[in-house]
């Protein structure tokens, strides 16, 4: 079986304010660098246009949302066309008055939108009040067809759910992408931080293993203070990474650095791995009906 190499990159960056133009241009510089190195497909982190506004519940933050198509999709679509790349972006979508989503948008070497995915699993925890802002996605788990293959795009909290990764893989996703914004509560101990990061790393690499597909994860970096008085803010833990179809770690960024990762993926390995580890052949689908229940009493 001949090799089929795909150069995949990601951008890890910090966000200092809500100036979209500044943040977009910052991303554009890194996209240009990756494209110059031959990247064919590039992933940006979750909600990269602004600060992570979900640290509080504030109706004024809805002003940050925009329609699709809109200014963000215009900007990043032009970059995808200019650099002849597949580009996976993330934005706060205003679908209609009072209706908002956390949405990933994919471009395929063109200004035109190749597809989008609306975040399905919405957290609601201290410092991550996303249910206040985002309606759960209604587009299902559908891979997006591009010139480099079918992309299974999921978003942040989705990354903890094996069902989401499995359903994308079952529909033929060649790769899984996770734009992410996750970090530590500043009151967490060092031991707790290590446990949380270890769990995050393990669960996503497990999705690669269980589905025999590469996983690409772009997480934001840096500290973002909370607008809530007395709240310690969030230290985003960075450490974006790319793993192969057996969960093998191919590249990983540091905690605080603004950086890019670029990896040569041999896409033919997915087929080879699936022949050796035929999980889909041996799944007992006749015994899994209770997975659609909330709980088993």
TrEMBL record:
GO molecular-function terms, A-Z: N-carbamoylputrescine amidase activity
Name of this protein: N-carbamoylputrescine amidase
PANTHER family membership: BETA-UREIDOPROPIONASE, NITRILASE C965.09-RELATED
Species: Marisediminitalea aggregata
Keywords: Hydrolase
Domain of life: Bacteria
Domain CN hydrolase per the UniProt entry, residue ranges: 6-267
One Gene Ontology biological process: putrescine biosynthetic process from arginine
